[in-house]
Please model this.
Amino acid sequence: MFENLRNEVLEITKASADSDLKLQQICDLLKANVTHYDWVGFYFKNGDKNELKLGPYAGAETDHTIIPFGKGICGQVAVSNENFVVPDVQAQDNYIACSITVKAEIVVPLFINGENVGQIDIDSNTPDPFTTEDERFLEFINAEVAKIL
Ligand code: SME
Model:
């Protein structure tokens, strides 16, 4: 499944469109095709502020359009520069709930020239659904996205 989706992501990134549209298409593609992806979005560092700003996403609207560095899973990844896989969100103290249906989350940082500029964030309504395959897949996506930003 991820192999086909990798090719579809490449089709999107190499097309002639603006980058926000491409990011939106990637979110829509992932949400529609990966059953355990229920919310898919990108957050990016907001200018020179130590906060994240929501970019394109697919799924329910969220109040959390700005997230300070250090807060929640997303804010922690902004400072750790490492993938954060959460099998059970209820077991996390530093977590920002977007919807009561969410059981698990994965956040993978996005680097441009070694700098952590943002992240892809996936929420799942399925408990403990993420494997290292998800991590490699999302790292691949972020590396491709980094080339078009
Ligand atoms: N749960 C995230 C907040 C973003 S929403 O999932 C869209 C967090 O704890 O950082």
Summary: The chain has one domain: 2-148. The mean pLDDT is 97. Residues 39, 41, 62, 64, 67, 72-75, 95-96, 98, 105, 121, 123 surround methionine sulfoxide (CB under 6 Å).
